[in-house]
TrEMBL record:
It comes from the Bacteria. Residues 37-142 form the DUF4174 domain. This is DUF4174 domain-containing protein. Keywords: Signal. InterPro entries: DUF4174. Pfam families: DUF4174. The keyword Signal applies.
Length: 153
């Protein structure tokens, strides 16, 4: 009798329990979702700053201005991450997963595998950025593969 009562009550309580559990599970922020979507497709350069007016942010953007070809050749996506525009979930993600301490400026290279490959508290010169990436095994394989697919001269 008790078992029969239990079997009748559980289906009624289950949807409510699922709603409660879903509400307690933190949803990933936009930044985390963007990085997840980029995995295995693109490298990501995070340019993290308190605001767009921060001097290091402005310097980093200026350094990247004429680097579209180099960034594209290395499958880079540049993401401006401004603390004054971030959700709490995105800020927590930066602290927990990337290891940043708000509101400090940082440039962070995220590899195609989703891992942090380099991090700097200062703007990163394009030569240093490209050199860092070009030393990575995956990038070396991309370079070798592109050489094999070039048409003969």
């Amino acid at each position: 009798m008790k078992r029969l009562l239990f079997l009748r009550i559980v289906p009624l309580l289950l949807p409510g329990l699922l709603v409660v559990l879903a509400a307690q599970t933190p949803k990933p922020g936009r930044l985390e979702q963007t990085l997840r979507v980029s995995r295995w497709k693109q490298r990501v350069l995070l340019v993290v700053a308190p605001s767009a007016k921060h001097p290091d942010f402005r310097q980093q953007k200026a350094l990247l201005t004429n680097q579209a070809a180099g960034l594209a050749a290395r499958d880079f996506r540049v993401l401006d991450v401004l603390y004054d525009e971030l959700s709490d979930a995105d800020t927590q993600f930066l602290v927990r997963e990337i290891g940043l301490q708000p509101p400090a400026f940082a440039t962070v290279i995220i590899g195609k595998d989703g891992g942090v490959k380099a991090q700097s508290p200062r703007p990163m010169a394009p030569a240093a950025l490209f050199s860092t990436v070009d030393k990575m095994p995956m990038r070396q394989a991309e370079i070798r593969q592109s050489r094999h697919h070039q048409p003969p001269k």
